[in-house]
Amino acid sequence: MGVAVYICHCGVNIAKTVDVKKVVEEIEKMPEVTICRDYQYMCSDPGQELVKKDINKYQPSSVVIAACSPRMHYPTFQGTLKEAKMNPYCLEMANIREQCSWVHEDKERATEKAISLVKSAVAKAALLEPLIENEVPVTPAALVIGGGIAGIQSALDIAEAGYKVYLVEREPSIGGHMAQFDKTFPTLDCAACILTPKMVDVARHPNIELRAYSEVEDISGYIGNFKVKIRKKPRYVSEEHCVACGDCATECRLADRIPNEFDHNLSKRSAIYVPFPQAVPLKYTIDPDRCLMITRGKCGKSPKCVDACSANAIDFEQKEEVEEVEVGTIVVATGYSEFDPAQKPELHFNDLGNVLTGLQFERIFAPNGPTSGELVINGKVPKKIAFASCTGSRDKRVGNPYCSRVCCMYIAKQAHLVKEHIPDADVSVYYCDVRAFGKGYEEFYERVQKEGVHYRRGLISEVYEEDGRVHVRGEDSLMAEPFDEGVDLLVLGTGIIPNADSNEMGQLLHISNSSDGFYLEAHPKLRPVDTVTDGIFLAGCAQGPKDIPDTVAQAGAAAAHVIDVLSKGKITIEPYNAVVDTDLCGGCRICESLCPFDAHHFNEEKGVMEINDTLCKGCGVCGAACPAGAISLNHFRDTQIFAQIGAVLND
Amino acid sequence: MSKPKIAFYWAGSCGGCEVAVVDLGEKIYDVVDAFDIVFWPVAIDTKYDDIRNLEDGEIEVCFFNGCIRNEENEEIARLLRQKSKVMIAFGSCSHLGGIPGLGNLSSRDETLDYVYRKTPVSGNEGGTMPCTTCVKDGNTIDLPALRTEVSALNDVVDVDYYIPGCPPPLPVIEGAVAALMNGELPRKGAVLSTEKTVCDECDKEKRKKMVGKARRIYDDDVDPSRCLLEQGIPCMGPATRGGCEAACPSANMPCTGCMGPPPASQEQGSRMVTAITSLIGVENEREATAEEVAEALASLRDPVGFFYMYSLPTSFLKRRYNDE
Ligand SMILES: Cc1cc2nc3c(=O)[nH]c(=O)nc-3n(C[C@H](O)[C@H](O)[C@H](O)COP(=O)(O)OP(=O)(O)OC[C@H]3O[C@@H](n4cnc5c(N)ncnc54)[C@H](O)[C@@H]3O)c2cc1C
Ligand code: SF4
Ligand code: SF4
Ligand code: SF4
Ligand code: SF4
C-alpha cells in the first residue's frame, strides 16, 4: 500500500542544484509515502532494479519517480512497473530536472521547489487508478501522401515489405522537385538517372496503387483503422487509352501559349500536356483552367486534340471520382514550396528579366528543360553571374527565421555547373555564412572555390537595372567596402517554405504544424518521424527543409515505422481517454461536436453520451466543455489535478 | 413529549421562498403535525428574543432563505446556527448568493448612491443617505449596516444541507421534507435534489450541437420542440442541477440556472462559459477570422448576468474588485 517514491540525482544534473537528501527527508514525512529513496541514475539498470525490489517487498499502490521529463522516461519506468507485475499507469513522474535543477541556480530554493513538485506528484499518485490498454486490429495497408522522392521511397519500402500502399500525388505525375533537377549536390549524380527508375518501380509494383492527379479529401478513424477519401481529378483523357504519343499537344489550338509550371514558367506548353517526358504515369492531362472546350464549351469547329488523337483517348465527359480506402497508417510526404522573391521588393524579381529563382535555374540545366540544358538566358550566354544566398531564409522580415538547409549547397552546385558550361564565366556568390554541414559538402564547397567561383561575404541589399544589366549592391563585410556590380544574370538562392495548404492539411490529418508552418514531429530528437497522432508519420521536406539524402533517410524511417505498426497486426492504445459518468450526463450533446476525433456517440435510448475508447485521443476538449462535469479524463481526473495543485499551494 | 422544533427565516430575500413554503398547500399540515414552528417572521408573531432564550441546538431544523446582505442577516444567521441542530440553506440566495449576489458587481457606496440618488424615480432632492444610527425624540436607534459584499449562508455559518432553486420547486421541497420526517437525510453538505442536469429533464429534441451566434428568445423562428441552446438561445440547462422538471424550458424560456451547479461541477458559470464559447461558431471555426469569432462571442449579451445570475458570490470570481 501507499506510494513508493524515488528521487534521481541524474549524475550531477539534478544533484548539483537540488539537495536530494533533503528532498528524501521531507517526502518521507508524508503520510501517503511508504518508502522513499534516492539513486544516482534511476533509469539505469540498478536504478530500475531498486524499484522492482521495492514493489515486490512493499506492494505500493503507486510509484513516483522524481527525475527528468516524463516525455523522456515515462515509458521506461512503465516498463519497470510492468516487469514487477504492477499496472504501468500507477506511475507519476515529478520533473525536477528540466523544470527545476536546469532552470535554477539557488540551491536552497531549488530544493524547496523540488520538494513541492514531488509532494504534488505524490498527492496525485495517491489517487491514481490502474488503467487497461485497449487492443485494436490493424488494416494492413498504408497511405502515402505526396509523390516526391520522400513519398516514392516510403511507398517502395512499404510495398517491398509486402503491404499495400496507396500513393496519392496531387500533380499529374510523381517525382516532386527532384524531377526538375539535372544534377544533385554534392556528388553531381544525374537526378533523372537515380529518380526515374524509382518512379517506374512505383508504377510497376504490384503492391502500389498509384493515385496521381488526386487529392486526399477526408480522413477519419485512428491508428490501424483510418478511412481515407481520395478525390481523383478528371484528366479528360482516358488513362486506359492514352498512349502518350503527344499528337494532341502538338495540335492543340493553344499549343505553346500556356506558361509551363514544371519549367517555372520559363517555357510554354499546350492545354493538353505531360509535365515532363519521363512522367509517371505517362498520360496526357487537359488543363481545366485553360482548355477552350472546358472554359468556353467550344474549341473552333471541333477540338483539335480529339481530331489528332488516334487512340480516341480524349473524354470531355470524364468526372471526378471519389474513392474510399482503408489503411492502417499514413505517411505525409507533401514536400515544400519555393519562397516567392516578390515578397522582397528590393529584389525587383518580377520587373527584371535576368533574375531567376533557384528552381528556375535548375530547369535551365535540365536536358528536358526550356533551353534543353543550354546555359542561355533570354537568348544570350551570360558571362557574369551572381548568386544571392539566403533569399527568404533566415529572414525575420518575411517571417522565415529558419535556415532552408539546401540553398548554400545548390548554389555551389549551380556555380559549378556554370563553370562547367562556360569555363571563363565570372561567378560570384554573395553569402552571409556558408553552411556546408553534410557528408562531402565542405569538400564540395572547397572544390567549387578552387574552380574559380568567388565567394563574397555580404548579402545583396538592392537590385536595379542599368544599361541592360542587372546591378547588385551591398556591402562586403569582410573587406568592409560597398560593392555594386553589373551582371548578366542574378540567381536567387530561394529558400524552402511550407506548402500553402499546410495548415489545412494539418487539420485534416489532426497533426500539428510548428511555428514555421512545417509539420511538427512528436519529439525533435527522439521521435523525428512520428506526429502527435498515432499512426501518422512524416517524411521529407513536409517536416522541415532538408536535402535529398536526409529526405530519403527519413522516408525509410517512416516506412520502417509503418511496417512496424502493420506487421504487429494489432495495436495497443494508451488508455488516457475521456470517460462519461452516465449518472451525471444530462445528454445536452455539447461535447459531441467539439471532439476533433469524432469519438462521441449519443445513445438516444438512454439519453446519455458515450465515448469510443479507441477514437478518443485524450485531448480533453470535451472534458473542459462538459458543463455538468460528467466527463473526466483517465489519469487526469479533476480530483487528481486538484490534489496536485492543492499540494503545491499548501507549501 | 413535545414535538421537535423548526424555524423559518428570511434574510436578504424577495419573499418568493416563503411563498414556495406556502405553496406546499395542505402538506404544510403534516409539517405542523410533526413539528412545532418556533420562529417564522413572515407568518407568525415571534421575536428574536424568543430564539435567544432557547437552548443551543434546541431547534431541530432551521430553513434559512435569503442571502447575507446586511449585518442583521449575518447576526441572525449565527444565532440560528447556534440554536439549530440542522441548518438548511433554502433557495438560491442562501445556497449560492442568488440574484442579490450580482450586487457584488458594485461597491457598497455605488449601490447606495445609485439607489438613493440616481434611479429615475429617486426624487431625493436633499440627497439624504441612510445611516446606521438615528436619534429621534431623544432616543437612539441602531440600524443594521449594509455589508460590503453579498455572501451565501455557508460563507458565514456552517450549513448542513441545501435546497436549491429560485424559489425551490415544489417537488424538491416535498422530497426534502419527506427525507427529514423519515430521518433519511443524506451525508452532510448534500444538495437535496437530483444529480443530473436540467437537460435530462427537458424533453426538447436534442441534436448534435452547433451554435452559430447567440440569439434571443423573442426571435420569431424558434422551434419550441427543439433544444433552445442549439437554436442559439443561451440556456443554462446543461450546467444546472435538475429537480425543477425543466420548468423554464418546458415553458419555452431558457433555463437561467437557479438550481446551481450539478455535483461534479466546481463552478456553474465558468463551466457554462467553456461550454458555450467552445460551441459558438464551431461549425466554421476553421475558416472563421478572429473578428468573426469576436463578433459571435459579442452576441452573448450580459455575460456575468447570464452565467452567474445566481452564483456570483460563491463563484471563483466572487465579486468585482474594489477598495472597500
Ligand atoms: C533549387 C533547389 C535545388 C536543390 N538541389 C538539391 C540537390 O542538388 N541535392 C539535394 O540533396 N537536394 C536538393 N534540393 C532539395 C530537394 O529538393 C529536397 O530535399 C527534396 O525534393 C525533398 O523531397 P520531398 O519528397 O520531401 O518533397 P517534394 O519534392 O516537394 O515532393 C512533394 C510531392 O508531394 C506532392 N504534394 C504536395 N502536397 C500534396 C497534397 N496535399 N496531396 C498530394 N500530393 C501533394 C507534390 O506535388 C510533390 O510531388 C534542392 C532544393 C531546391 C529548392
Ligand atoms: S480541346 Fe482544344 S484547347 Fe482543349 S486540349 Fe483539345 S485542342 Fe487544346
Ligand atoms: S478527450 Fe473528448 S474531445 Fe478529446 S478526443 Fe477524447 S472524446 Fe474527443
Ligand atoms: S457535455 Fe456532458 S452532460 Fe452534455 S452530453 Fe456531453 S457528457 Fe453529457
Ligand atoms: S433547452 Fe436548455 S435545458 Fe433544454 S435541452 Fe436545451 S440546453 Fe438543456
Structural commentary:
The complex is a heterodimer of chains A (651) and B (324). Chain A is of the alpha/beta class and 651 residues long. Among the domains of chain A are: 129 residues, 3-Layer(aba) Sandwich (Rossmann fold), CATH 3.40.50; 62 residues, no CATH class; 161 residues, FAD/NAD(P)-binding domain (3-Layer(bba) Sandwich), CATH 3.50.50.60; 57 residues, Alpha-Beta Plaits, CATH 3.30.70.20. Helices cover 27% and strands 24% of the residues of chain A. Chain A is built from 16 helices and 34 strands. A five-stranded parallel sheet of chain A has the order 10-7-6-18-29. A five-stranded parallel sheet of chain A has the order 20-27-21-22-23. In chain A, strand 3, helix 3 and strand 4 form a beta-alpha-beta unit. Chain A is globular, with a radius of gyration of 30 Å. The mean pLDDT of chain A is 95. Chain B folds into three domains: 124 residues, Rossmann fold (3-Layer(aba) Sandwich); 40 residues, no CATH class; 117 residues, no CATH class. The N and C termini of chain B lie far apart (51 Å). Helix content of chain B is 29%, strand content 14%. The radius of gyration of chain B is 22 Å and the shape is globular. Chain B is α/β, with parallel strands linked by helices. The mean pLDDT of chain B is 92. Chain B has a five-stranded parallel sheet, with helices on both faces. In chain B, strand 6 and strand 7 form a beta hairpin. Chains A and B meet through helix 15 of A and helix 8 and helix 10 of B. Bound molecules: flavin-adenine dinucleotide and iron/sulfur cluster (4 copies). One iron/sulfur cluster (SF4) binds next to helix 15 of chain A.
